[in-house]
Amino acid sequence: MLAVHPVVPLVSLHNLNYIKPISPHYKTQHEAVKSLVDVSCLDPGRTLQQCICYERGPGFIWSVSVSWGYSVQLYPWAVAPKDLVKALTTFRSWRTRSLGPFTLDTRQLNLDWPCDLPVLFFLDHAARDGVNWNWTTTEYSRDLKQENGCKSPSFSEAFKVKTVRVKAPQMAPAEWKRAPRRQCCKTVRIEGGEILLVQINQCKPGQSSLSQ
């Protein structure tokens, strides 16, 4: 749910004592939530805001979904934006502990079929950009517990990425007083393909944020 937060500011989190840590990088829920709270101090308005872009290379296309300050989902195939904004069913209903119905759009997750799963990255480091103080740089490292069980060449290429580095301008509070929309982003692979660089910007005239 946190990976596909709607286009509204993050206000609060509830019932965290009843779920597993929100990030596999931490052993306790307190540590995991603290990382989200700490990064939110850098850019409160952007916290958990989803941005979608695509990386193309020789013989492959990746779909990249960034939840700022929390996680990155890298799909080694083309996924339509209308599907990327739906939450993967990694959770159950509160009272019945069943897989629905929910009050939000969801996508079924088949844990037994690794070729259906995205490559997951979680927040590892965050700081103000060293060049432009009004920008932030957040880095997300791959969940090392996730194994590449899919033999697709596109998956093998995706698993070469060790870090996703996201650069974004600080979101002005006035943004929420306008008609809210997702911002645009672009990607490029650097460091021999081990780092996927994502830059988030306001959409330019004629440019689509894809998820609108």
UniProtKB/TrEMBL annotation:
Pfam families: DUF604
Entry superkingdom: Eukaryota
InterPro entries in the record: DUF604
PANTHER family: FRINGE-RELATED
Protein name from the UniProt record: Fringe-like protein (DUF604)
